[in-house]
Each structure stands twice: as C-alpha cells, then as structure tokens.
Amino acid sequence: MCDKLKGHETPGVAFFITRGASNGSLVVGIPKGVKVLAWPQNDPAEKRDKDGNTPAEKWLSAVVQYARAGVRVVLTPPAHKDANDWVKDGNASPEDFLAAINAALPAGDPLTSIMDIGLGVPDPRKTVLGDRFLCIGGAMIFVGPSGIGKSSASMQQDILWSLGREAFGHQASETVTNPYHSG
Length: 183
What we know:
Layout: H1 2-5, E1 35-38, H2 55-67, E2 70-73, H3 83-88, H4 94-102, E3 105-106, H5 114-119, E4 127-129, E5 134-135, H6 150-162, H7 174-177
Parallel strand pairs: 1-2
Antiparallel strand pairs: 2-3, 4-5
C-alpha cells in the first residue's frame, strides 16, 4: 500500500506498522493535531473474545488511546483480510486506496449524536436494568426531598432484584441477579 500510494515519498507522512493486535500501544507519543489513519484488519467473528471483541478491535482501541491524536479508521473491503492482502490481490489501484482514505470514519469520537444513541440497539451484555435504564459502568441516583422514601425504595428494589424479581416495573438482568453469571 505504501508503494502504491507513494506516501513514503511525501513530506510529513509517516507509516507505523505495529504487526500484531497487542501492539497498538506502540503509537504512543503521536502529538495532537496529527492525522492518524488506522487500517485494522478484518478479523472473522470466531476470533471474538469473551467480551465480544476481535483482536483488530482491541488493537484499534489501543491506537486511539495511545496516539492521543485524531484517529480515523480506514476500512479494507470485507473480501480482504487487511490492506496488505488487498494490495496482493492486484485489483486495488491508488484511486481505490485514496477513496478508502477519504471515506475514513472517526475512531473513538467522544461526540456522538443523541439521535445515533437513540436509534442504536442496546447491548444486552452491558445492560443491567431495563432498556438502557442502567448499564454496566453507569450509575443510578435517587433524587428527592428528605422523607420521601428513597432509602425504602432502594432497599425494596435491591431485595427484589437480588431474588430475580421485578421491582417498580423493571427486571434486573441475569448479570445482576446471578453473581456467577459468566456471559
């Protein structure tokens, strides 16, 4: 890909090849303001770990975390394992690569439209209560004046949910009611 795009001949362009899903952190120290294009490989679904992540997804997460720059994800066509495989196929032109780069999407962008969140399907593995009412890593707060019954309601819901029962119209997930749940 580097050869086809002649990017290595362009001033101000550098390529980092991390070789391996666990090496995404090697991009540490890239200054803010630098444009980073990440090309994750297309891992098959059977490579997902117990948390549902592929090695490529873990790699991309590390690149976003350690690069501390604006990372954009360039997608390789699904028929190819990675960009190198795409080049070896012989059918990819420099224009194809530039089109993929121009279509790159922001990775780990903290600004997500509220409409996108609302249209999304909740991940049941991360949902503790209701339909995203409470998620793993989230918090729930009872707010109200003194003496209104916040503590009593909290105690009642905790007891009912620990018994696997519904409380106030909400059923806790299996993750909450069964501490030995592995899924």
